[in-house]
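Weekly structure sync, notes
Attendees: PL, DS, HV (note-taker this week)

Item 1: Cupin domain-containing protein
DS walked through the input record. Source organism listed as Pseudomonas capeferrum. Sequence as pasted into the shared doc:
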Amino acid sequence: MTQVLTVVRNAAASPLGAPAPARLPIGEPIAQAATAQEQTDEAVGASIGVWESSPGVFRRYLKNREFSHIVSGSCTFTPDGGEPVELRAGDAVLFPENCEGVWDIHETLRKTYVLF
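Item 1 (cont.): predicted structure, written out as tokens:
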């Protein structure tokens, strides 16, 4: 059986789709987010891509587990009931299933992600 790899290429320079306002903003400015290279592999039940957000504060609303590698920018993520975590270019993070909290994007943030 031939295996097919799902690949994100050149995430730092990948052209993004049209930005849209954060779904659950908190205050002003309202962050604008966009994605690129969105791919879903039904065989393994995962989606991957590139995500970028302008500065702003908003709630994380995804229920999936997520692994992300921060390509550029910086932010603070505060999980509900947890301590704030500073993330910046070069960092990687694993969000457990049902992890909710608040994104505070300080500097335009670009990351690659795997939702599973």
